[in-house]
Automatic annotation (TrEMBL):
Protein name as catalogued: ATP synthase complex subunit 8
Family: Belongs to the ATPase protein 8 family.
Gene: ATP8
Organism whose genome encodes this protein: Brachypteracias leptosomus (short-legged ground-roller)
Record's subcellular location: Mitochondrion membrane
Membrane-crossing residue ranges in chain numbering: 6-24
GO cellular component: mitochondrial membrane; proton-transporting ATP synthase complex
Region of interest: Disordered: 35-55
């Protein structure tokens, strides 16, 4: 069963993860968003109680 042989695929997976962690991720995290979110307060929702017809 060649699916159970981790010999060629484990090295590929490990290389891919290490490349992502040490090369791609720092480059992506260095970008700043061009349109930052404004710091405005969130509006509170005005709720009204439900009037039950049997009470």
């Amino acid at each position: 069963m060649p699916q159970l042989n981790p010999n060629p695929w484990f090295l590929i997976m490990l290389t891919t993860w290490l490349t992502f962690l040490f090369l791609i991720q720092p480059k992506l995290l260095s970008f700043t968003p061009s349109n930052p979110l404004p710091n405005k307060p969130t509006p509170t929702a005005k709720t009204t109680p439900w009037t039950w017809p049997w009470t």
